[in-house]
């Protein structure tokens, strides 16, 4: 009504009959009301709804950014952002394709970190020059790796470490010897030696080993692990004469691999593996058969890689046996019998094998025979956890399991147990294995399955009796009784329970306080590995760097490339558990 009388248009028509005095008065009244509303709103806006100590910027941090105040991102802005990302992707793709960069480098753990670092700088970042990359940045990355390895040294002196070494020949017929250090903190690469022009006799190899031992610190090295070659074995024994606290051990994975190889070479095994191979090749060479099988419920591929070539053979045998009914359903189906393939010699041969019960029985037997060995191979081949404490038990259980498979009929199990015993006695068994078995609580406190033989205790006595390893032997031997009889800290219910659940070295750290001298020794033993396959896993690293394409690099810089590349790979493999130290910012 006031707007009607005041002649204010918008919400209502103005009154044409009202006098000028009344209109002016109504306009003044409306102005007063409007001013009061504005003052009230300003007073309300000045109050912080979140409290006096919280500002609006802090609150806004908890909400997603908006493209404009009070609005959702428009379709145009979304499409524009996708276009920007696509342009960046295309720029990276052009670089890769122009320089023939392998696409799998995108899987590197460092790829996205590099892109994020560039994005944080913003436009205008210039890539490092050729000289800076090959000189300055290589030097700085090497220094980072050196600091990482130095951070391990304290752990080496307390928990001990294993020097792993292995020689191999590349495609240019050069012999390279790689040296790595294993500890429970991770694997570190030391150096790679081109031994092509070196006579690899016992003394020369021992001198090479001694150089690395001195670099690590002789008191930190517990054992040297190499392959089973005679010259490496003798060099390891000579190293033990120089450093009485360092023992030589062969690679457990290689010995197990030789056992599997010997079993495969048994006359009856040759036929079984040949027939299994025929089935596998037959199926995978004919796509329409594979397509039919893949429609079966719960289908898994027959061919699955193992840790080694011989392990793969047994894993494939097991896989073929698991697909027995699928394969028999295939060759007896109308789908197959109506096909031209069923009329061929290869087709009939495959049907004969698949429907042969003797073949399937032998597959089952061989799978059971190899099962304990494959399990042990997986344990020792995992260098992310110490495995020395499991080798002796694994070999004992393998022989025991094989005897049970054949119901203790000697003429049936003897061919297999003889192979294991021969390789174990002749190549693998060492004092450390016996001592580690005795000191592993998961086996010592298993009264049913513990293998209580004199050789086990004798191995422990030999280790404790070595003054360079244990300078208080009598004290340590008395503490062995506390551990064996589950007394004091070893007898706590939680200690006995966790013996099966914890890593043995960690168990001793937690529950070995009643035997401090023995605890110190045991941690150093049970923290070690039993293989050198960490060398093998990164042979490709050395192959890529030791090439004619980079022969213009001087020898030292080439070694620096290997040093950085390998240690970065190992850091990535261990899940960045220990970050490389960023030690300074360099100005060029």
TrEMBL record:
Residues 128-279 form the DUF659 domain. SUPFAM superfamilies: Ribonuclease H-like. Residues 496-568 form the HAT C-terminal dimerisation domain. InterPro entries: DUF659 (IPR007021), HATC_C_dom (IPR008906), RNaseH-like_sf (IPR012337). It holds the Pfam family Dimer_Tnp_hAT. GO terms for molecular function: protein dimerization activity. This is Uncharacterized protein. It comes from Platanthera zijinensis.
């Amino acid at each position: 009504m006031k707007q009607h009388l005041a002649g204010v248009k918008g919400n209502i028509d103005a009154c044409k009959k009202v006098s000028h005095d009344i209109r002016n008065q109504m306009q003044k009244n409306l102005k007063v009301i409007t001013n009061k509303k504005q003052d009230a709103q300003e007073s309300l806006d000045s109050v912080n709804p979140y409290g006096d100590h919280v500002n609006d910027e802090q609150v806004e941090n908890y909400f997603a950014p908006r493209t404009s105040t009070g609005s959702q991102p428009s379709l145009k802005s979304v499409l524009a952002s996708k276009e920007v990302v696509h342009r960046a992707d295309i720029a990276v793709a052009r670089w890769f394709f122009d320089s023939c960069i392998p696409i799998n480098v995108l899987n590197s753990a460092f790829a996205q970190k590099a892109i994020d670092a560039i994005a944080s700088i913003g436009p205008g970042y210039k890539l490092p020059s050729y000289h800076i990359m090959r000189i300055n940045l290589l030097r700085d990355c090497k220094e980072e790796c050196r600091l990482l390895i130095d951070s391990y040294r304290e752990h080496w002196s307390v928990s001990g470490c294993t020097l792993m070494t292995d020689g191999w020949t590349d495609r240019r017929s050069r012999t390279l010897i790689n040296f790595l250090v294993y500890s429970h903190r991770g694997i570190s690469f030391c150096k790679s030696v081109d031994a092509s022009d070196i006579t690899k006799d016992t003394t020369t190899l021992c001198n090479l080993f001694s150089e690395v031992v001195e670099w690590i610190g002789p008191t930190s090295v517990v054992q040297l692990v190499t392959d089973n070659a005679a010259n490496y074995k003798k060099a390891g024994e000579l190293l033990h004469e120089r450093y009485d606290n360092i023992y030589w051990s062969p690679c457990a994975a290689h010995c197990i691999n030789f056992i599997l190889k010997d079993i495969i070479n048994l006359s009856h095994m040759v036929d079984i593996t040949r027939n299994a191979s025929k089935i596998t090749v037959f199926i995978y060479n004919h796509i329409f058969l594979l397509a039919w099988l893949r429609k079966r419920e719960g289908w898994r591929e027959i061919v699955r890689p193992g840790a080694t070539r011989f392990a793969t053979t047994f894993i494939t045998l097991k896989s073929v046996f698991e697909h027995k009914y699928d394969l028999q359903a295939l060759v007896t189906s109308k789908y197959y019998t109506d096909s031209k393939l069923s009329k061929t010699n290869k087709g009939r041969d495959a049907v004969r094998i698949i429907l042969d019960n003797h073949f399937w029985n032998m597959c089952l037997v061989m799978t059971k025979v190899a099962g304990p060995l494959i399990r042990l191979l997986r344990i020792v081949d995992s260098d992310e956890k110490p495995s020395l404490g499991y080798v002796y038990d694994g070999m004992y259980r393998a022989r025991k399991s094989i005897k049970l498979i054949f119901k203790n009929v000697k003429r049936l199990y003897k061919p297999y147990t003889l192979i294991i015993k021969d390789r174990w006695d002749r190549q693998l068994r060492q004092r450390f294995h016996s001592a580690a078995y005795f000191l592993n609580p998961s086996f010592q406190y298993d009264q049913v399955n513990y293998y209580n033989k004199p050789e086990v205790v004798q191995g422990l006595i030999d280790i404790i009796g070595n003054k360079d390893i244990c300078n208080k032997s009598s004290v340590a031997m008395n503490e062995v009784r506390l551990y064996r009889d589950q007394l004091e800290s070893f007898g706590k219910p939680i200690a006995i329970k966790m013996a099966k659940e914890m890593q043995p070295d960690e168990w001793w750290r937690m529950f070995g306080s009643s035997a401090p001298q023995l605890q110190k020794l045991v941690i150093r033993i049970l923290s070690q590995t039993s293989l050198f396959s960490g060398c093998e896993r990164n042979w490709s690293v050395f192959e890529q760097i030791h090439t004619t394409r980079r022969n213009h690099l001087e020898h030292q810089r080439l070694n620096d490339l290997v040093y950085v590349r390998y240690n970065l790979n190992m850091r990535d493999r261990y899940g960045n558990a220990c970050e490389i130290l960023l030690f300074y910012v360099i100005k060029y």
